[in-house]
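INFO  loader      accepted 1 record
INFO  loader      residues=134
INFO  predictor   begin
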Amino acid sequence: EILRFAVRGNPLSLFLDSNPGLCCTSSTELEGKEGQRVTVIGWVITSRRVSTAGGGYMKFLTLEDLWGTIEVVLFPPAYRQAAKTSRLSGPLQVIGTIQSRVPGEANLIGEKVVPLRLAEENRIRPEPDYALAG
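INFO  predictor   done
INFO  writer      dumping tokens
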């Protein structure tokens, strides 16, 4: 109101509307996809870095998409690859596998993290899940 702008939607919709070729799985669809490889897109709303027993680091991210939140776990190899990327502001594209340890709760084990602007520029698309194509 102070700036005389009306907030009428999620800023993520601007990115998705401008590039309809980017496909992703919504936060509401994750629970039924245990063991499947998916792509999600969202803004980082919280992150926490944790040291591991081996002396490395892993990271927990909470992303927000248009429908809810997504919990992402980056184990040390994925975290090393995405360390700089996961600190950036703006939306991220995360490719990974759905894991569900507790009924009604699904996590994404992240394998690849890319800022959405790079995903758009470089046309990064979800990689096929050959195990499911079988």
